[in-house]
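Title: Prediction job returns without error message
Component: structure pipeline
Severity: low
Priority: P3
Assignee: unassigned

Description:
Job completed but the reporter wants confirmation the result is attached to the right record. Sequence as submitted:
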Amino acid sequence: MKGKLIVFSAPSGSGKTTIVRHLLEQSDLNLEFSISAATREARGKEINGKDYYFMSLDQFKQHIKNEDFVEWEEVYRDNFYGTLKSEVERIWAKGKNVIFDIDVAGGLRIKSKFPKETLAVFVKPPSVDELKRRLKERSTESEEKINMRIAKAHVELATAPQFDVIIKNYDLEVALDEANQLVKGFVIEGKNH
């Protein structure tokens, strides 16, 4: 039996990771986090197999060749991210629903492959200026990387209407409650948006 797929996508700094972490704490939703594969280096305290499956560019390209991904994308030059089919199957085999914290292109690809099983949610930040402030506050990336993310954010914001639902993250408590109600409606009551 297939479980549900819940996709959260947004530009970097919108708060999607905070929302996803909150939802994972709600036991009634029966969610498990989909760990993405990535070719980038681990940041800070990130752990292989918990935060990401870190792999070399060659390993990633071999998985592409073997058609092992549900979706994948070259986000920046030689910087690939993707969702392994085995990851979704692993979570479904446990009888759980899969939740994704994923970029916009990947989120839309999952929705197109599994239209009935997927709830695709776009998290909208208050403004691009606020995004930039949040990214700088993190202190995890160079000014150049932040500027690349901001340029990408403009493109990503334009895709928001393609998602099932848009959550405006202007007030985190309100956004968390809205996300919880949406996901509960989808996984427990079978509401499709």
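Comment from assignee: result matches the submitted record. The longest strand covers residues 69-76.
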